[in-house]
Design brief:
Elements (H helix, E strand, L loop, with lengths): L2 H8 L22 E5 L3 E5 L7 E6 L3 E7 L3 E6 L2 E6 L3 E3 H4 L1 E5 L3 E4 L8 E4 L4 E8 L2 E6 L2 E6 L3 E3 L3 H13 L4 E10 L3 E4 L8 E5 L4 E8 L3 E6 L2 E6 L3 E3 L18 E5 L3 E5 L8 E6 L3 E8 L2 E6 L2 E6 L3 E3 L9 E9 L5 E3 L8 E3 L5 E7 L3 E6 L2 E6 L3 E2 L11 H12 L13 H14 L9 H7 L21 H12 L15 H13 L10 H7 L50 H14 L17 H10 L9 H5 L5 E3 L10 E4 L10 E7 L2 E6 L4 E6 L3 H5 L1 E6 L2
Amino acid sequence: MNANTRAMKRLTAALLALLLLLPCAAPALAETFYAVVTADSMSVYQEASLSNAVGSLPKNSVVQITGFSTSVAKISYNGSAAYAKVSDMKRVDESAVKAVLNEAAPVYKEPQEGGKSVLAPKGTKVNLLARSGEWAMVEKNGYIGYVKGAFVTEADDASDAAAVSAAASTTSNGITVRTFDAVTLENTKVYKTASDKGKKLGTLKAGTQVTVKATSSDGWACIEYKGKYGFCKLISLREGTAPAATLPAATQVAPAGKSAVVSSKTLAVYKEASKKSKKLGTLKKGQIVTVLNTQDGWAYIELSGQYGYCAAKGVTVDESGVPSGFKQTDVAATVVSAEARVYASPSADAESAAIKLGTEVQVKAYSDSWAWITQSGRYGFIPVKLLSKATYAAIDGDGTALQTLLKALLVGGYYDAVPSTSYNAAAIAAIKRFQSACGMEETGVADQSLQRVLYSGSAPVSDLLYKALSSGDKSDSVSRVQARLYALGYLTKTTSLDGEYGATTVSAIKLFQTANGISATGTADTATLKALYSIDAKSLPSGTKAADAGSGSSSSGSSSTYLDSVPSGLASTTSTLPTNASAAEKLEYAIYLAQSKLGKPYVYGAAGPDKFDCSGLTTWIFKAVNVALKRSAYAQGYDDTYTKIEGVENLKRGDLVFFNTVSDSDLSDHAGIYIGSGYFIHASSGGHRVVVSNITTGYYNRVFSWGRRVF
């Protein structure tokens, strides 16, 4: 069973009710709702004052909340009322993804087949909490269970879930969740099911605006019209926000239309292309409109979200298609605000729709305040200030551009180390955190879109900077704060980065607060966290002992863990690299070089010849035997060019060894070279120099991840 599967199993509540997916009665109290535990471990108390602890719940447990104040929630715990911190939880309906079962499917207590299960009907709406491999973890009415991921279709919101539920219950063909506006191209029949043999619900006239919520692979669209759901042929729809003209279906309507000016003294606008139809109003000479189509002397126009027909001779069209008052261009840009909206016309009062942060668009024209853009074949207007067209090269390696990026990520609360030019595990983790906050794919590569958002002045700030952490807290946030304190010297042992806000962390925060002119409370409040993640944050003053100096046992990083000489019988005597050297000779020369650097200082980001960080040492050693290793411990550890060695007992002399020393998403934070009999040489931040340590017992045995065989 892999780590992800084990993690999913830990999400299961102690007593799972397997009737989770059958229809359930609504909660009796309006204020009752369900929440998921977001802290690594949430303490549960008997009193609302958070006294008399009665137990704890693991991360991602689902609880029922029956009442809450600003900081304390009343929950149901083992059948009784209890209390917990509001900050340790988040509402399920806010943190989960809406989803629907696209087939009738068994739901299990654990992510494995063969156990007790209940068959949930096709079309059941659920909250999707997590996916791992072929399994999905789902929730309904406070209960959680596991179902094969292939049976779960995600939806953007509750209304999408309802539509997909309807689609799933009426067709066995593949369903794609995709919400978009559309108009009917002709009189269109609407059915209760995705079949023209089903019950007919009615007929929509050509030009009717509808919202498509899902489509099926056999050509049906699940649509919403006047609050109801039904099905029509997808081919009878045209995607777009403007109502279709009641002109012959063969007439092509430009997606955005063309800007035009009223040239007549007055110009009547009608509901239909006929003077006998209802008159909608009168336009005056000089007014700007958008012409969507022309036919038989009539122009179908739009003005401020309103549509109608006027005499084509009464308007003068700009054939370039560029809106009046705009300058034509053709440049790519990125949406840099999470609050951005696209408008039907250059006015904040026009109809609009949200557009996702980081979306790539093409700017076709612009004015001082507005940009006319196209994206996925659709056009609209967006404030210029919410776009960036700055040019950046993608960052996926070492360099000064990376250091500049890391400074910005530090201030935003995403990077925990000291900004350097090294593209290492800490840098990759920071980039992924920012991508996650922006809703981008977590690649660890800072592409142009990411940099446009980051440097725009509108970049989202990490939730970490708004937390209040104190003694007794346990979470990933605590681990990150400890990592930042470690980078600044207030903590010196990797074993101090345990995610627990204990006495050592309190002391480290007090040291930081004192050095940075903040009242030494030992609590990481918002002011302290913002100072900690500032470019101007002061390191541990010279002459001051770190919070964990002198504490701990030899197995967790004290001086006895570090040897300054190679144990007897393990030293290499191959002091030169022979011509046409064999693999064995290269290996022995690499070990000789490693042992020659014992005692050299550890300096973060350094790669020799007289100072090193861990991956800097391994890179320098193997470069001398014509092996080009990747620069960071993360990159070396995950480089499948070299055979992966599982288990300490399978290591051989000359293997690279990797360790999980930082609480983050990867398992390769530290590197060294194995020399046999349980010993390896490495540049140690805890030992402050190049040393020999033992991998068979103690700290390094506990955090060992794997090896890589270079020769």
